[in-house]
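Good day; I would like, with your permission, to put a structural problem before you. The record follows directly beneath this note:
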Amino acid sequence: MGSNSFTGSNKLMKLAQQLSLNNSIISVKKNPVDLENERLRPKSNRAAVLICLFEDEGHDLRVILTKRSSTLSSHSGEVSLPGGKCEESDADDVQTALREAHEEIGLDPSLVDVVSVLQPITTKQGMIVVPVIGILYDKNAFNPAPNAAEVEAIFDAPLEMFLKDENRTEEEREWMGNKYLLHFFDYEAENKKYVIWALTAGILITAASLVYQKQPAFSERKPKFWTTNHQ
C-alpha cells in the first residue's frame, strides 16, 4: 500500500514517509524474486503482528493492543498486538498481519496504510514473529469488533510510553548462557489495568525507538535468540 492512497494529518503523513525511507527495516515494496521467495518460505513456524498507529486528539501517537481471551491455550489473558500465525493462503507477512487484525478486532485492512516491516524476531520456541507497522489515518472509521473466542478486550496506549522509565519494571532472565531483560509496562485504560511485557513490550520498544528516533531511557538488553534463525 502506498501512503498516497490515504489522507491524514501532516504528522502521520511525515511519519509514513520517515518509516518508508528507514534502512533498518524491510521494504514493503517487493520485486518478483522477493515475492516468490515469500511464497516458498515455510509458514508453519511463522507469525506476524500489526503495530497499528493512530493520532489522538492531542496529536500524540497511540498503538492498538488487545488482551487475549482467558480461554486460549497459549498466552491466555496476556496483552498482545493483533496478529497470529501465517496461513498457506497468505501472500506475505503483511497480509498475515492484516488478516489476523481483521479476524481478531474487526479492523478493515483498507483502513490501514502499511508503511514498514520490522526485522523478524525468533522466540525460544522457534516461532518467527514479523512486526508490521501500519498507520490508521481515520480512527473514527474503525469500529472495534473483538472476536470473543480470541480477544477479551481492545484498548490503545501511547507509543512513547515504551521509551520512558515510568510504570516499568524488569526481570533478568537467562537462556542458554545469555542473560537478558524482560520489560513490564503497567498501563490503565477505562479503569482496567494491563501489563504489557515480554515479546510485545520488546516489539513496541523497537517501534517507538524508530518512530521517535531515540533510544529508551533504560537499558534494553534484548535476548540474543530474538535475532537468530530468520528464514
